[in-house]
Design a protein that fits this description.
45% of the residues lie in helices and 21% in strands. It is built from 14 helices and 16 strands. It has helices at 17-31, 46-51, 55-67, 80-85, 95-103, 184-201, 217-240, 249-258, 269-283, 310-317, 327-344, 347-365, 371-374, 387-400, and strands spanning 10-14, 39-43, 69-72, 106-111, 128-132, 142-146, 150-157, 163-171, 175-179, 204-209, 244-248, 263-267, 289-294, 300-304, 368-369, 383-384. The strands form four sheets. The chain has a ten-stranded mixed β-sheet with strand order 2-1-3-14-13-4-5-12-10-11, with helices on both faces. The structure holds NADP nicotinamide-adenine-dinucleotide phosphate (NAP) and magnesium ion (MG). Residues 74-77, 96, 286-287, 303, 306-311, 324-325, 372 line the site of NADP nicotinamide-adenine-dinucleotide phosphate.
Length: 401
Amino acid sequence: MEKIKMTTPLVEMDGDEMTRILWKMIKEELLIPYIDLKTEYYDLGLACRNETDDQVTIDSAEATKKYGVAVKCATITPNAARMTEYHLKEMWKSPNGTIRAALDGTVFRAPIVVKGIEPCVKNWKKPITLARHAYGDVYKNTEIKVPGAGKAELLFTAADGTEMRETIHEFTGPGILQGIHNTDKSIASFAKACFNYALDTKQDLWFATKDTISKKYDHNFKDIFQEIYDEEYKEKFEAAGIEYFYTLIDDAVARVMKAKGGFIWACKNYDGDVMSDMVSSAFGSLAMMTSVLVSPDGVYEYEAAHGTVQRHYYKHLAGEETSTNSVATIFAWTGALRKRGELDGNKELMAFADKLEKATIATIESGRMTKDLALITSLKDVTVLNSEDFIKEIKKTFETL
Ligand code: NAP
Ligand code: MG
């Protein structure tokens, strides 16, 4: 069989620990035998980030802007323990944070739904994609622990010196204070990323905040979304037969629980943090969650939502067998290959991505899976496979399709 040709390279960001092991197996077993794989390779493994003073991460983000599509392996975000483990020169920043800042992107997370791994919410039949605004609010706050009586004020000094002042509270005793912000630019980027992603995946878009209580702050999010929708997206949505609507966050939560799924739920930063963990755990497993970073100008970076699975890696290093689930990492590759195919008009590449996803799902639905899924499946008589054998079983299924 002739290998599928690629015209434009994918930006390949290698990573750390167990996911780095899976990365290599996926390429060798599931990709290279079928595709004349063209990638521009960046090693985001912690050793290389340290050697290059993290320049490799910045270069990989720039390459993503240039080519438009990247696929990323999970990476270690250094903490104190990693400083000694990897003899780091500095506590390098999270690569995801660096890439997100460079692309000004929004993160979309969606579960991979298979028969036999049932969501806890029984009416959820299709995936719910969570879009989380990744800038500002409580994540960039300024806080004061108020020691005692006094007056708290909100003061803005404009560039020309004009002041705007509001009383927050007259304290009669100790308490707490918090200042948060966001920018119209960041909110507009978030809105555009959501509208583009909805069009791209042909799914309805829901957006919710607490604008009835937060009449300026949250209301500003609502207004920016609505303006951009009316000006740039309304006609496109109507043509695609999809819907955008805004509702209150409490109403959204109630409706999500009763919905069938198959839509995108856009959330402010904090709501997105909390709700994405709720949605992903209700769908079954972090190992079945994909994640894609989309920039407002249509650049895509695909990855798994989970980390480097450190515990399994140490077992692997000790020579023990592991049963690590590679599904989300496989879907990061198929997502990137499909998008590359779409941008290049490469139908074969798109069909390959579809077929590999189908083979992965069919393998699990036939009862062959890793341990994490075996623990939660409703299927009977399952075969628990180790990390490598699971990938080999997917390859076998792929060859029969
Ligand atoms: P993790 O790698 O997501 O793993 C946490 C636990 O979840 C694992 O120990 C395992 O449970 C289970 N798990 C996650 N993915 C799995 C898979 N594919 N197959 C089977 N089980 C899976 O999170 P972590 O241990 O907190 O973090 C490890 C490293 O990853 C950290 O250095 C962190 O900085 C990094 N991280 C990176 C990213 C990213 O690059 N996007 C995201 C998150 C974390 P059991 O041990 O019970 O089997
Ligand atoms: Mg969280």
